[in-house]
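fold-stage: in
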Amino acid sequence: MELLLNISLLALLLTTAVAIAWTRDLFAAAMLAGIYGLLSASFFMAMGAVDVAFTEAAVGAGIAPLLILLTLALCGRRQRSDKTRAVLALILVAAVGTLLLAATLDMPAFGAADAPAHGHVAPRYIGESMAEIGIPNIVTSVLASYRAFDTLGEVVVIFTAGLGVLALLLGGSDSRSAVPSPALQSGGQSRDLVLRVVAKILIAPIMLFALYVQFHGEYGPGGGFQAGVIFAVGFILYGLVFGLDAVQRVAGNGLVQLLAAVGVMIYGAVGLLGLATGKNFLDYSALAGDPVSGQHVGIIAIELGVGITVAAVMILIFYAFSAQLRRDGQPAMQVEETIDEMIERRVG
């Protein structure tokens, strides 16, 4: 039964990937990308990688399709036909795919007991992480303690990506010269009473669940990456239903930019505390009286920094796209006005 499930999920993944590459309707490709993320999360769940499945569901099937749709609102729905470029892309993909298949020939058999990961890596983490780190979730132990320096690099990459989006969308324009349309001056609030009521009901539980994921990552699936994305989804939903002006009154653009940097600074400051006490960088044992308690304090602190940066960067990207739509003379995106209608208006 498990083999049949895995084969079915892989077949659906392959079919979805081919459909994404085949279609020239970028709106359909964005929807298929969300489906691909959901299928990937299901496959990871079937493989027992719950934390990875959680991340894929939040990012791949959650916020990523929304950001793709915002991009389509700026660049249009239809892909231009360029056979030469398509052939070159096909050759490149085929070459990379061949190299990847060749590389798998040197890999150990799937699930082999004598694989290097099972013989050298897994025993250390599984057998000793509880005594050294003192938390049940081994994935969190690995990400936030054993390879905390690598995770710091990932957070910096996310922060840098946010800066890149801001530079691309906002760097070449002068927002002082933008004249908002009457629709923007009204705040862009949805006129649909049902959407407003449902949003008010859902936003608070979304935020509460984000906090649960943030501070429960030591004991179960979750952590700063997943919590940050979920928290950002709550703000983005608020902006979609009640308008960009309303959500920026809650968290202004300047505040969100500051928080994006503060999260990285919190992470780095934890490492500097270790150096200040004569320990190694990101050695949490200096944060409390005993090493295990120090691990708890350090992991909570750096996960908080991760969550703040991820949430702030996601919200910043949403603000940047919405601001770009405003400068183009389009109303802020609303739920009642579909992306399809926005794209058709822009292309027309």
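fold-stage: in (second)
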Amino acid sequence: MLSYRHSFHAGNHADVLKHIVQSLIIESLKQKDKAFVYHDTHSGAGRYDLSDERADKTGEYKEGIGLIWESDDAPEAIKPYLGVINSLNQSNKLRYYPGSPKVGHSLLREQDRAIFTELHPSDFPLLLQEFRGDRQVKMYKEDGYARLKASLPPKERRGVVLIDPPYELKHEYQDVVDAIDESVKRWATGTYAIWYPVVYRKNIDLITKGLEKLGIRKILQIELGVAEDSEERGMTASGMIVINPPWTLETQMKEILPWLQSKIAPETGHQFVQWVVPE
């Protein structure tokens, strides 16, 4: 199935969490001069127009990035992420929101590179348009997991893989576990960042328990919710599971999450940082 279009959801609370974690990992990699790769398995479009009919129909960004992008009390650690937003919106009006490829690419240095894969026939041309001619970027209209398998280990031996599937089908939760199993065998020292939506909590348990069984160490889980778990409300929370996280990520997110919750869901939300498997 290829019915999912992220343009309906761009800039929502889940995007905010995902892209903050993504930016923190990339900024950590930049602490060393040696080049790294940023690999995005489900890229979507490079950027999203929040004034178009899809984003306007749901208005989800108003309850996500719309609540924080101009905050004067934002934690210092999320300034690089907010800087990407501001670079796309030169006026005081929030019109454009970056997809994960745009966030990642904007934070790369000259020596770093990116790999983007997208299968959707409508989104891939937009991705091409956004990065066409950029020598740092390789783009593929392929299955994200197949391209990941073919690309590991990277020549740099440093980097991060963002795995962000649409989860349209139930088997996609197990697909994530299988992809990590295959990938870690090829590149055990890479950082893998998995985004997940909380619609049915049992599906998230499937991922965490599946990862535990792989025998991998250093698996950190980060979650931000806007409401209590409910199978009738749609997505009530989202999270990131990070394998081989930067040593600073746990502390950073423990500082950032309470601030995020206070801005996005002060009365109904929840947040946590916990180890699925410690070091």
